[in-house]
Amino acid sequence: MSGRKPYRSDLSDGQWALIEPVIAAWKAGHRSVSGHTGRYEMREIVNVLLYQSRTGCQWDYLPHDLPPRGAVYYYFAKWRDDGTDQTIHDLLRWQVRESRGREADPSLVVLDTQSVRAAAGVPATTTGKDAAKKVPGRKRGLAVDVLGLVIVVIVLAASVHDNTAGTALLDRVAAQSDTVRKALVDQGFKTTVVSHGASLGIDVEIVERNPAGTGFVPQPKRWVVEQTLGTLNLQRRLVRDYEHRPASSESRVYWAMTAVIARRLTGTTTPAWRDA
Fold first, then answer.
1. What is the CATH classification number for the domain harbouring 218?
2. What is the pTM of this model?
3. Element housing 271 (H / E)
4. Domain count of the chain?
5. Which domain holds residue 177?
6. 9 lies in a domain?
7. What are the backbone dihedrals phi and psi of residue 268, each rounded to the nearest 5 degrees, phi first?
8. What is the DSSP code string of 20-70?
9. DSSP states of 118-179
10. Rounded distance, CA 166 to CA 188, Å?
11. pLDDT of 91-143, one tens digit each?
């Protein structure tokens, strides 16, 4: 960051200290044959990813005082494909949970989906139309803990039924952690998801709305996933799906939540894009 004016999305020294060990270990394991260590600081590469998430900036419109598209996308793709992005996110998530006196991995998760419009350049083969919400694009599925922290994320065509998204989420939850015993879902998920959860040793409960209630009534515990989806929508890059690959869309969620968690751990805040 030396030689330029900082952006609001830049990592603080404390936030970078949380992420740097993972990046340093990755770099040590991916040394260039020629011994070249790279032209750009790794902190700046991460700063660009967070800047892009926050502002929604296109690759070709990155500010000239930041590393260029080619350098940043190289690391974005590498970390997406080998899971480094999720590793960084998960390590920080564990720290937040342990700071709250909880075990590193949860015993209960909350599932939900959100359909978002896809940008014009997104391949039609990876998109569809949500028949219920009338949204053309992709469906973002989340499994979060009771603190609203993301456990897993999947991105599918918006035309995919919630049952399919739910079973895929449960599969990823089970593959990643053996501690989850219960999952809460809304009425958009059906008995197919309940049965699949049972086969994985996860008790899936469909939380039904109180028929006597009128208007919007938040449901205890299950509502936390809605809060997380709202938090993600403060990241302009996530308001619409711009990524050609669903895996890139998933990576964007992990980076966005990494920024959120790093702020929590360091007690810092970043103004929302709509703040004065």
1. 3.30.420.10
2. 0.92
3. none
4. 1
5. 104-242
6. no
7. -115, 165
8. HHHHHHHHHTS--TT----SS-HHHHHHHHHHHHHH---GGG--TTS--HH
9. BPTTS-GGG-EEETTTTEEEEEEEEEE-TT--EEEEEEEETTS-HHHHHHHHHHHHHHH-S-
10. 10
11. 999 999 999 999 999 999 999 999 999 999 899 999 999 988 889 999 999 99
